[in-house]
């Protein structure tokens, strides 16, 4: 990877503008704020990180039960990455003709596909955890990925611990331990203790797996850059890796949906509702259909004082 090293000041030159930015600090905060591409990326990450868990938890609270579908949607937007890739390709083509559309090597492609499988499994574990945990508890547990990232970075890319990283690892570990000691205290209504414990463990597993994904990605980029004649690790190459990762993770979760029969889980419910609607008592029926258990009809009394309308619900799992 291209790593900028701080330039050493010459001894013969006096130091000027002590408060100004030094040559080694090329990625200062002022320069980052002047880069619109980085600002857009930061805004999208903040919005997705904050809003994604809320929407996903709201889906489960309102009767949703398709965990494979929820995991599928987390990476299904990967085709949007083709837009910046096309823009980059057009600029490279104008600068130098005959440039390839993709800059990835076959080895980096295989590595990105493997990372994509890990990402798909991580999305599934995270979805299972959020189905049984409150958003606050899930967010605290998933933040322990920073500790796992620091540990795996030390093992894989030899990144040393600093005082701030050690402090963060200790605080996050203590927070997760305190939540574990009070397991079940914030259990949502309708969630059993076994489901809560399973969600707790799966969320920690998702944090550990995502903590492994980032060092593996950095390791694959470093090995790619170390090969003679390989293209440098640029923004375009990283976007290409993200495209392959998103595609592989989406295919993984789509296969899981097929195996789990998520595409046809509501077909029996709809057919049952049609049959009951055609042979009903003539009153209006309000129908709510969710995947999971077979259709269940609420009991209705035949007394004259009973209302003429009945409600039928396909209860979620």
TrEMBL record:
Annotated Polar residues bias: 10-28
InterPro entries: EmrE-like, PUP_plant
Annotated region described as Disordered, given as residue ranges: 1-28, 269-317
Subcellular location, principal: membrane
Keywords: Membrane, Transmembrane, Transmembrane helix, Transport
GO molecular function list: purine nucleobase transmembrane transporter activity; purine nucleoside transmembrane transporter activity
Subcellular location: Membrane
Membrane topology classification: Multi-pass membrane protein
Ranges of Low complexity composition bias in the record: 295-317
Segments passing through the bilayer: 37-56, 68-89, 101-119, 131-157, 164-184, 196-216, 237-259
Superkingdom of the source species: Eukaryota
GO-annotated cellular components: membrane
Family label: Belongs to the purine permeases (TC 2.A.7.14) family.
Name this polypeptide is given: Probable purine permease
Annotated organism of origin: Setaria italica (Foxtail millet)
